[in-house]
Each structure stands twice: as structure tokens, then as C-alpha cells.
């Protein structure tokens, strides 16, 4: 089953830089796609195009069969089904962890406070941070904040999770706990698209690795073939 399909994406910035230069791709349900490539090769632009955080200059993005680049489409409704995790956690500093997690489910999914909090506590247990429910983000370590950012996305019941260098801003000793959580999600069947420099994660967890360079997909394959080719 195709979950996301992009067709001939181009992104040209004002400075005439061709950040995406004709990218076509399909992401299937249940795939864990890891995107690798040198800095500036368009990985982040490609990832952000999938939920139209970055609007492509030309080309189409289909999500669950719907052309979300079409002006007629209500993008917000579809975007809710695409969780996104950034390098920096983007938690609301003046809200508690529980409030951070329940905000969108209450506002956008119209869940009751009780229902949203029950689900939030379940997710907090999943990552072993239930005792942080009433803490503020500043009281958490980087690795804890990133795990909260991930479960905050999960609280929206997304159909796909997009990760943009989720461990790049972390102290090295905190990288492992975030990768472990991502691995758990992958094992549970979550569809994931991940931009990362963590080659261990790519080798171990990816179902497919995409190599980008100069705004193009230059190579791709199962990690085994991908990493064995010279
Ligand atoms: P990567 O994620 O592989 O490092 P990016 O997608 O972030 O690459 O960037 C691709 C190219 O587009 C880079 O040369 C980058 O400097 C440029 N770029 C990214 N965002 C912008 C922007 N908002 N305006 C102009 N150029 C940009
Ligand atoms: P990433 O770490 O995701 O590759 P960058 O550090 O390259 O991101 O860029 C951070 C922000 O600056 C992004 O919003 C990106 O779109 C923007 N940006 C990147 N390169 C340029 C550029 N050459 N001109 C203007 N904006 C840029």
C-alpha cells in the first residue's frame, strides 16, 4: 500500500539554488525509510515537502491517495496524520509535559481532557517518563525532551512519522535512548521517514535507505545491499 507518493518535486529558493531537482518517490505503509547524504543535499527539504512544511516549487505530493499540493485540499486535516519530530524539540516551555502532549489531541481531535490525559499517561509509561507528567520542559534532559516530542506526535495517532535529524542536537550519551524509542516504533509497524547521520540505525532498523546528493535521489536499496556496495 502506497502511503505517500511524490512526483517530480523541484524546490528552487530565491537564491536560485535547486534544493530539490526532480525527486519522485513512493513510501509504502510500514516502511522505515532512512535518508542519507551530504549536508546541503536536500534531505531536509525533501522530508519537509512530504507534509508541505516546505511547499515545492513544482511537483505533486499525494498522501493516502489525495493530492495535498492541490489548492482544493484542506492540508491541515491531512497534516495531522503526519507526525514530525525536529532536531530541536519545540516543546512549549510554559506548559507541563502533560499539557504539551494533550494540547493538540484536545484542540484538533476534540478529545476530552480525561481521554487525552489517559492516552498521554499511557505514552509516558511507554517511555518510562510518567513521573515527569507535571514537570516543565526545562526540567528534562535533551534525551527526555526528545522522547516527549516523539510521544507528543504519537498522541495524534499519526499514520506516518517524519524525523528530521532527531538526535543531532543531543549530547552523545542521550542519543541511544531516542534511537531505542524510534526502533520500538519501527518494530511496532509505524511508517517512518528519517533523516539521520546515525548509520547504525540505518543499518539495523531501515527497510530502505535513500542516498541524496545535489537535490536528487542518487541511489537506494535495502540496507544490506546499500551498505555493501562500494
Ligand atoms: P540537507 O538537509 O541535506 O542538509 P537541506 O534540504 O537543508 O539539505 O538544504 C538543501 C539546500 O537548500 C542547501 O544548499 C541549503 O542551504 C538550501 N536551503 C535550505 N533552506 C533554504 C532556504 N529557506 N532558503 C534558501 N536556501 C535554502
Ligand atoms: P538543517 O539542519 O535541517 O539542514 P539548516 O541548519 O540547514 O537546517 O537550516 C536551518 C534553517 O535555515 C531552515 O529553516 C532552512 O530552511 C534555512 N536555510 C538553510 N539554508 C539557507 C540559506 N542558504 N538561505 C536561507 N535560509 C536557509
Order of helices and strands: EEEHEEHEHHHEHEHEEH
Bound molecules: adenosine-5'-diphosphate
Structural class: alpha/beta
Number of strands: 10
Rg (C-alpha, Å): 18 Å
Strands of the biggest beta sheet: in what spatial order?
A: 6-7-8-3-9-10
Number of helices: 8
Strand content: 25-35%
Mean pLDDT: 96
Net shape: globular
Largest sheet: 6 strands, mixed
> Percent of residues in helical segments?
25-40%
Alpha-carbon distance between the two ends: 31 Å
Low-confidence stretches: none
Protein name: Amino acid ABC transporter ATP-binding protein (PAAT family)
InterPro entries: AAA+_ATPase, ABC_ATPase_HisP-typ, ABC_transporter-like_ATP-bd, ABC_transporter-like_CS, MetN_ABC_transporter-like, P-loop_NTPase
Domain ABC transporter: 4-230
Pfam families: ABC_tran
Features:
four-stranded antiparallel beta sheet; 230 residues; alpha/beta; globular
SSE layout:
Blueprint lengths: L1 E11 L5 E11 L3 E5 L6 H8 L7 E6 L2 E2 L7 H5 L2 E4 L11 H11 L5 H14 L15 H13 L5 E5 L7 H16 L3 E5 L3 H7 L2 E6 L2 E6 L1 H6 L2
Parallel strand pairs: 3-8, 3-9, 6-7, 7-8
Antiparallel strand pairs: 1-2, 1-4, 4-5, 9-10
The protein binds adenosine-5'-diphosphate (2 copies).
One adenosine-5'-diphosphate binds next to loops.
Amino acid at each position: 500500500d502506497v502511503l505517500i507518493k511524490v512526483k517530480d518535486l523541484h524546490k528552487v529558493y530565491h537564491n536560485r539554488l535547486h534544493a530539490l531537482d526532480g525527486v519522485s518517490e513512493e513510501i509504502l505503509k510500514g516502511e522505515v525509510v532512512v535518508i542519507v547524504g551530504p549536508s546541503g543535499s536536500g534531505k531536509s527539504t525533501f522530508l519537509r515537502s512530504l507534509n508541505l512544511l516546505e511547499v515545492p516549487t513544482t511537483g505533486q505530493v499525494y498522501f493516502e491517495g489525495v493530492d495535498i499540493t492541490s489548492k482544493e485540499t484542506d492540508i491541515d486535516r491531512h497534516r495531522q496524520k503526519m507526525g514530525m519530530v525536529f532536531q530541536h524539540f519545540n516543546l512549549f516551555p510554559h506548559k507541563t509535559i502533560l499539557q504539551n502532549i494533550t494540547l493538540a489531541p484536545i484542540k484538533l481531535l476534540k478529545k476530552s481532557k480525561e481521554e487525552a490525559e489517559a492516552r498521554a499517561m499511557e505514552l509516558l509509561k511507554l517511555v518510562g517518563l510518567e513521573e515527569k507528567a507535571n514537570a516543565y520542559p526545562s526540567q528534562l534532559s535533551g534525551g527526555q525532551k526528545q522522547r516527549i516530542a516523539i510521544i507528543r506526535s504519537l498522541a495524534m495517532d499519526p499514520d506516518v512519522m517524519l524525523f528530521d535529524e532527531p538526535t543531532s542536537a543531543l549530547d552523545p550519551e542521550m542519543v541511544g535512548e531516542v534511537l531505542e524509542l524510534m526502533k520500538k516504533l519501527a518494530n511496532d509497524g509505524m511508517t517512518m521517514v528519517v533523516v539521520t547521520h546515525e548509520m547504525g540505525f540505518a543499518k539495523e532498523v531501515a527497510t530502505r535507505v535513500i542516498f541524496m546528493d545535489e537535490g536528487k535521489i542518487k541511489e537506494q536499496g535495502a540496507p544490506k545491499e546499500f551498505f555493501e556496495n562500494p
